[in-house]
Structures are given as structure tokens and as C-alpha cells.
Amino acid sequence: MALSTEDIKKIAHLARIEVSDSDANATLSKLTGILGLIEQMQAVNTDGIVPMSHSQDVVQRLRDDVVTKTNQREAFQKISPAVGNGSDARAVDGGLYLVPKVIE
Amino acid sequence: MINSSLKTLAQMLANKEISSVELTQTFLNRIDAYNPEINAYISLDHDRTLAQAKAADVRIAAGNATALTGIPIAQKDIFCAQGWKTTCGSKMLENFIAPYDAHVITQFDHAGAVNLGKTNMDEFAMGSSNETSYFGGVKNPWDFSRVPGGSSGGSAAAVAARLCAAATGTDTGGSIRQPASLCGFTGLKPTYGVVSRYGMIAFASSLDQAGPMAKSAEDCALMMNVMAGFDERDSTSLNREKEDYTRDLNKPLQGLRVGLPKEFFDIGIDPSTKDPIEKAIQKYQELGAELIEISLPHSSLSIPVYYVLAPAEASSNLSRYDGVRYGHRASEYTDLMDMYCKSRAEGFGAEVKRRILIGTYVLSAGYYDAYYLKAQQIRRLIAQDFEEAFKKCDVIMGPTAPSTAFKAGQKADDPVAMYLEDLYTIAVNLAGLPGMSVPAGFATSADGKPLPVGLQIIGNYFDEARMLNVAHQYQQVTDWHAQAPTLDKPEGSA
Asked: Is a pLDDT exceeding 60 seen at residue B493?
């Protein structure tokens, strides 16, 4: 299927990446080339082949439901980004991360 | 000393011929002299590094040294190291100070090794030339106009230019082996699950695997003894008994069955690469190996399959970078959606964005079966090809990369041409097998410079010790691995 710049914008929105019109055009030609490469797969008959998601045929390990990690909130919040929109303060307040208001 | 093996360095340290501080300072001096030009390291912290060297000297004096105590190692900037800036080659993580250690870092710390610094890499390990790094390209020490390969390009240049005793890398589609080939040293990607991925920044989780990059197979074996092992914090880490990867180094190769996949010699290979590879294989024959022609009929599909599966996994893994808790947040935005979209648009480079978009597309509604499922099915066919092949042979040999190091900029604007660099390495990741690259000679460039050529050795699952033996025996009768580039004295030095 040939992609359009509208498709690129839709995919970019799903991926939460802002693209300008000129970016979308440049991306379109590159992605079309890559999808052409991927298209080679369609020549292979894969009827009845079990998909392989992982190289080792092992089951997920389970562990006891106990606390194994200590609270490191302060260490982790030290590396929070700056708030932005004119504020250089860390985007943390009272142990909570600051994001734009999402509920009116 | 800068050319000495890890074993020799350990002996010198044990005999007090040199201290770890002196050894470390020697490498730091070389880094200070050459790194401004080569750009192999992103982050250096001499005080922290020398403090580790001092602690190593105390440990050596106390008689508690391990094989790597006091040895200066370069760490790829994909491994979180507490207190170190850990960027993964991205603007997204430009100011990210890791709050914890990756398992690999912990293992080296426990061994008493010294962390020399964090090495340059393609952004989020997506690239084959190190040109996608936000922190600039890396120069190939054999010819500064050429790329070192990627994604572990900084570690590769550091090993080749003797800016470290050894280095770590990661390999999702060839990122240890291809730069090892282009820079002329020994690199090993272990079986998937052998080295813990805990604290190793994720690209494509079913393919990513860390391994050693060093001057010889013996050095790689010593590094593997530190890096490998079960870690419950990585859900795909395999619970196996600890191995000594040096145990088989000295075994003779009489009767070794070497499989030669005809597909690896038919397509894509440059004549200047083919010649050294064929001579290396002849050498193995002289060492008593038996050559067996094999076929990997689906190997040509490994690149299309990889460029569905790896971007799909990457699009999911990289969704964590949202500008909320760490990493880059846009300085101006209107609402939450705008903050996500702008932070990611600014924080990621062009190649990373392309792969996220490809991954998002192939996983999107209506396309899953045609792309993702299809790719997983062919992945099984590729793995089955190897399974059949290993019924007839012990190891598989062929080229690591289609050609020698290419000029910087030559493929930077053509993703598909760049992807073909990993023609011979990607199938190994898809199958989860171990693979290594071993120096096998040189080709001469048009302007008369010697450029290294790497021989790829692919082993069966968990057969690293045998592969290291196969490489080590070759390194006993050849000296390709011991050759180092002649570096011009940096400007302004005496």
C-alpha cells in the first residue's frame, strides 16, 4: 500500500511525534523506501508456520509476591525535567510530577 | 602497555610493575589527547574513574583481585551507571544522570574493574555508522574520513585506538560485530539471555544483547566471565550455571566442522572483503577444520523481517519517553498532548523517529497480520535454517559485513543502503544465536589505506566457549588481531 503525507501525519500522531508538512514529505519518501524493503516478505508462503516472538522457548518466571525494592522517590524525582513554558523549576511538587491540566 | 592483553595487564598489576592508577592515567592521557578528534567518548569523569582505580589498588594489595581488578574498561552509553550521565546517544537523555546501575555495570564493579567513561553510539543503538548520535559521529581510527560502524561505534573506536583496555557493546542487529569488523578487533554477541539486560536502555527487547569488544578472543572470554550470568531482574535472563569462558581456549581444532553458507558468499559481498575471508577459511583448514557447504535459504529475508520486528518493539519501548518524569521536555507547549508531541519531536533524531513511525504503522489496526505476524513467521523459518545447518557443522563462518569501513556521509541519507550493512549479522539476532567477529586481514582503500576485514563466526546456542576457542586458535597462528592503527599525534602535542 502506498502511503500519503496524510498517513504519515496520522501515524505520527499515534506515535505522539509532532511533524511539520515539510517533515511529513521528507519522511514519506524514506518510509516508502523502507516499506518497499519490507514488502519482500510477501513472496514467502508462511501458511501454518507458528509465529516466533522470542528466541528462547521458556515460560515467564514467577516470584513470590513480596516487596523487593525500596522507595527511591527522591532519587528518581531529582532527574525530572524542567516545567517549561518559562519555568526552569523541576516538574515536581510535593512528590508529584507536574503536567499541564488535563481536567477542566 | 596499551597493546597488552588483559591477562598481561593483570599480571603486571599483581606483580606491582604498575598500579591501576598509573594504568588508568595512561589511558586517560590518551583519551585527553585523541578523543577531541575521534569522539569515542560522550562522558568522562576523571575523578570518579581514578577513585575506582585507587580502590582497585587497595584491593590488589589486599590480595583480593579478580582477573579484571584495576583494568580500565569503556562502557557503552546505553548502560545506566549510577551518577554517570547516561544519554544513549540521544538529546532525549542529554541530561539524564542514571539513578541506578545496570547489571553489567554492577558486575564490572564487583570485579573491581575501572569505568573509564561512557562511549558514543548511534541514537538508541539505531544505526550502523554512529552517525545518528546526537553527540556527533565517531572517526574510524584506521582512516579518520571513515565511519567506525555502529551502533557501538564509540566503544569500537576506543578499542581500536587503544583508548581503553577493553569495552562493552550491545548488539540488536550487528552493533557489536559490524563495528568490530570495520575497526579490526574481536567482538562477541552472546546467546540471547546470557547477559542481563537490566539497566541497559531498551531498543528491541527480543533481540538486544550485550557483549564484549576487545583486542583478542582471550580478552573477550575474560570479559564474558564478568558479564554473563543469571539476573532475576531481567525476565528473559536465563538461569544457567556459571561458565568459565576461557576453559576451551587451548583445545586443538582438529575435526572442527565449519559450515559455509553459500548465500553469504553469493550476495552483497565486496571482492576486497571476500578475499581475506577465503584466506581465513583456508587457515582453518590448515588447523584441521573440515569445510562443509550449508544453506541458509531464508537469510536474505532477515533484513525485511528485522525492519518490522525491531521498529515494532522500539515503538513500544520508546513510548516511555514522554517528557513527564525524566528526559527531554519541550520548553514551550500548550496542553498535555502538545507537550508529548513536541517533547518527542525535539528529543528524538530523524532515524529514531523513522523507526518509531515504521513500528507504529506495522502494529496499527489492519496491518498487524500482513507485517508483524508475517515477520514473526519468517523469523521462525530463519531460526529453523540455522537448526538444520547445525546438524551438519559445529560453527558457521562467513563475512561479518559486506564491505570495509565506508566514508562518513556516504550512506547517511539513505536508510535502506545503511540497513544492508547488517546483511550477514541480523539473522543471528533473530534466531537468538551467539555470533562474533574476528580480524581476518585488510583490504586496501582507493587512497591506499589498510582497512580491516572481519570474519564472522556463528555458534549454536550457548556455544560461546567453543567459538572463543575457534577464534583463539586462529589468533595463535595469525597476527591480524594484534595490529593497531598508527594515529597521528594530535595537534599541539609535543
From this structure: no
